[in-house]
Amino acid sequence: SGRRKPFSDDEQAAAGDSVTQYTRFEYILNLNLKDSDVAKEFVELGYRGIGHAVSRKDFEERKRRAGIVLSTRREGPPPITSDSLTVIEPFAKALAFREEANRTTKLLTIIFIRDKNSVGREISAYIDFAHRLKLEDFTGFFTGDKKLVPLSSDLSYYNWDTHACTTNDTNNFSLLANAVSGIRFRCTHDRKVIFVDPESKQYGDGTTRT
Question: In which domain of life is the source organism classified (predicted)?
Fold first, then answer.
């Protein structure tokens, strides 16, 4: 599985404050630059001379995510399923160890699984653990009563017998496919790329593999 930490706690707080304080993209541009249409255009196109690049799309996405974070904070910390369970199986223990960090997006984990489906066909998938945690009850997996299986709704799913393939973006990752470098994922929080090819010598900035 690949792991990366999108932002530190301080960076998350700063990012959230900067985008939630202002309701419109133009306010942030006016705050950071002189009131110049040319300067605004440079920043909107990705000019990095002042601070970091801010595009209208990035601003709206950051504000949306910050709203989710603030809403989550108001609702209190998410319940941690594995805390009340006895987890024995090594793979389940490894994910239980990462559960809280993934639920709070302090850490993001991409899981690779290759298995057989109910009719014996070999299937595999890259799974966004944080995304799956929001959609499924992991109690059975942590207790060993059920397996974590590849789904066609995962980041990338492949049936090795039928060659059927599906790809999906989540709130945390988008897929980057390249004929030469193969499958990679971009973290939507910090825009950094994760290399999942097992032959790759690099994993990506801020990413570890276990």
Answer: Eukaryota
